[in-house]
Each structure stands twice: as structure tokens, then as C-alpha cells.
Hints:
By secondary structure, this protein is mostly helical. The protein has helices at about 5-15, 30-50, 55-100. The N and C termini lie far apart (about 60 Å).
Amino acid sequence: MGIDLHLGHYWLLFSGTALIFEIEFWSSLKQTIVHFLISYLLFTPLAIWAGWFPVNSLWLLLYTLIFVLIYVFFWIIFSQSIKAQVQQINQLISKRSRNC
């Protein structure tokens, strides 16, 4: 398979799973856990199919560790970004309510 086909699958996976965060009645924790599990369970076969690592338990363990570390890294970055946005919005609301 060509690299374009692989990239298309990855794009579908990550754009589709991002919709999980649009489910407003789920807690952030539930959204994150479900997103992580679906991403891992769908991304792993794609990584194997793309030939990123041989299929054996040692490589699967190493892949899983790397996947978790990358996921946690991005989760921290996005969480901090969202927290900063919320603080900025709260400051704007506070400033506007004082001016009224």
C-alpha cells in the first residue's frame, strides 16, 4: 500500500475519534479514556499493517509504551491550552461584568 493510503487511514482515525470530545454529557475523564482506548485499538493494527514494527510481544510492549507516552504528552499540552483559554474567557467575562 502507498504512503498516501496509510496517511488517509490515520487522518480518518484521528479526525473521527476527536468527535468523542464533542459529547457534552460525558466527563472529561470519560472522554479521554474512551478516546485513548479507541485510538489505541484502531491505531495499533494500522501501525502493524504499515510495517512500523514486527509482530511480537516485545515490540508490541515497546510500541504500547511509546503510544502511551506520546498520548500523555499531547494530553498535557492540550489540557494546558484549554485551561489557559478558559482563564482568558473568565477574565473577559469578569471585566465585562464590572463595566456594566
